[in-house]
Design a protein that fits this description.
Pfam families: Beta_elim_lyase (PF01212). With 343 residues, the chain is an alpha/beta fold. It has two domains: 13-246, Type I PLP-dependent aspartate aminotransferase-like (Major domain) (Aspartate Aminotransferase, domain 2, 3-Layer(aba) Sandwich), CATH 3.40.640.10; 249-342, Aspartate Aminotransferase, domain 1, CATH 3.90.1150. 44% of the residues lie in helices and 17% in strands. The longest helix is centred in the C-terminal third of the chain and has 19 residues, at 248-266. The relative contact order is 0.17. The structure holds pyridoxal-5'-phosphate. Pyridoxal-5'-phosphate is lined by residues 57-59, 62, 83, 135, 139, 168, 170, 196, 198-199, 207.
Length: 343
């Protein structure tokens, strides 16, 4: 099976499992797990930030960043296709009493002007604009890589208005692989940023949230309250360290494979690529075939290729370390067959 459903479908490699088995561990909740501490230091250094905290998920990174840096009645500015807005169970509202202002964009990349227009002037009657989140790369809008100038312009607008600048960097290292711009350059001047270990990096679980030392002290309170404090988490952190040593170069291969998939799919009659492929995620439409995208995806699955019908007349494909170039070729062949038989 060629599983292009998501880069969350990666399985820990033999080397990663070995690193996990050998991990030196302690009690994370008391700050005594050396492997987790090493992962936090390593990630903070990678992002050029003072400190970090290990989290069970990226979802908790976003939530803790929001809860720590806002208060009930605040409003946060995000892209309308963002993970925060669509797939975190409205946690900012449900747990923090924080509302969300979504910006409409083509590809998940909004402009500084849009951010500025969304920031409310202080008023007794209005929510208090408190935080702007940049998702780099974008997930649901198809792996767009934010241009560095756009990141910085949004950051500068946020800072000028006294807002927190947060980066959802679930796939920040895919952006790094695509552009050669360092993670530290991308998040320079941001208050908080995080990377996911369980996407393209191939770990079974985990994400690392970074910020100032003072921020991390407060973030720990929320991590604990939300039930995110762990014990011998070094077993998990060892997977993260292994991934940073061995799987970062793979992200470039993943991005290249997505581009090869893009080129192959483009050549198929009735298949239309929705947006230029910039990293490891691509979106395409089969509307021209006149069949529901779920039917197209199902027929591909019967041929051993798993795409993700997103329900928005589109199909998403995500490359990762468990899909090699031969897998990409098989996916293209399956799509070609299905297009011919359904079209
Ligand atoms: C996957 C993802 C998250 C959430 O991360 P989990 O580790 O799955 O909780 C947040 N933001 C983006 C952009 C993502 O792709």
């Amino acid at each position: 099976m060629v599983d292009l459903y998501s880069d969350t479908q990666t399985r820990p490699t033999a080397g990663m499992r070995e690193a996990m088995a050998k991990a030196v561990v302690g009690d994370e909740q008391s700050g005594d797990d050396p492997t987790t501490n090493a992962l936090c230091e390593r990630t903070a250094a990678l992002l050029g930030m003072e400190a970090a905290v290990f989290m069970p998920s990226g979802t908790m990174c976003n939530l803790v960043a929001i809860l720590t840096q806002t208060r009930a009645g605040d409003e946060i500015v995000v892209d309308a296709s963002s993970h925060i807005y669509n797939t975190e169970g409205a946690s900012a509202a449900a747990i923090g009493g924080v509302s969300t202002k979504p910006l409409t964009t083509e590809n998940g990349v909004f402009t500084a002007e849009q951010a500025e227009a969304a920031i409310r002037p202080p008023a007794r009657t209005a929510p208090r604009s408190a935080l702007v989140s940049v998702e780099n790369t974008t997930a649901f809008s198809g792996g767009s890589v934010w241009p560095l100038e756009a990141v910085r312009a949004v950051r500068d607008v946020a800072k000028r208005h006294g807002l927190i600048a947060h980066m959802d960097g679930a796939r920040l290292l895919n952006a790094v692989a695509a552009t050669g711009i360092s993670a530290a350059d991308y998040v320079d001047g941001f208050d908080t940023a995080w990377i996911d270990l369980s996407k393209g990096l191939g770990c079974p679980v985990g994400a690392v949230l970074c910020g100032t030392k003072d921020f991390i002290v407060e973030a720990w309170r929320w991590k604990y309250r939300l039930g995110g404090a762990m014990r011998q988490s070094g077993v998990l952190a060892a997977a993260g360290l292994y991934a940073l040593d061995h799987h970062v170069d793979q992200l470039k291969v993943d991005n290249d494979n997505a581009l090869a998939l893009d080129h192959g799919l483009r050549a198929i009659e009735g298949v239309e690529i929705a947006a230029p492929t910039q990293s490891n995620i691509l979106r395409f439409s089969v509307e021209a075939l006149g069949v529901p995208e779920a039917d197209f995806a199902k027929a591909c699955l019967e041929r051993g290729v798993r795409f993700r019908a997103t329900g928005a007349h589109e199909i998403r494909a995500t490359t990762h370390l468990d899909v090699d170039r031969a897998g990409v070729e098989r996916a293209i062949a399956a799509a070609r067959e299905v297009a011919a038989s359904l079209g």
